[in-house]
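User: For my dataset I need records formatted as: sequence, then structure tokens, nothing else. Please produce one.
Assistant:
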Amino acid sequence: MSNSGGDDYFKIDPEAHLIGDMEPINHFAGVKMWWKAIDAIARPLYFGTPPEALAGVEPHEFEKSADPENLLAAMDKYGVDVACLLPESMMDTTGYSSRWVSNGEMARVVETHPERFIYQPNLSPLLHRGVDNAISELEYWVNEKGARIFKFYPPEDTFINDSALWPFYARAE
């Protein structure tokens, strides 16, 4: 892989989140609360950061976008060679009824620029959907798509050291 940063360092973003089309889930109270919290966090950044610290940052860089081309442009601007694309499930915000982005949607984006994007399927929640189901999905992503990294997000499920997860960890090894 080439180095897009123009220096001698290979740079990887290990957790580039994909949001996707939010329209089908914007009605959930948890989703509304999430974006309200993000706006409250962003406000001090916009108005409290010294202008010199934001020199060169374009206004559109503060906006969420589902377009992978925008992510590529940011990667190029900041010298990031590859990004592990992580579909944001946020199932706790939808009462576990819907994901924000599926692993399949993430794969479609990765496959548009496989030299720049890496599969990082989100296999959460493990217990809610069944450890055997999560293992099956893990095997698919590794064996069929070549994934070498995945995410398990304990706040959506259980403690990271819950012994019920041990068969999943063993298979991941």
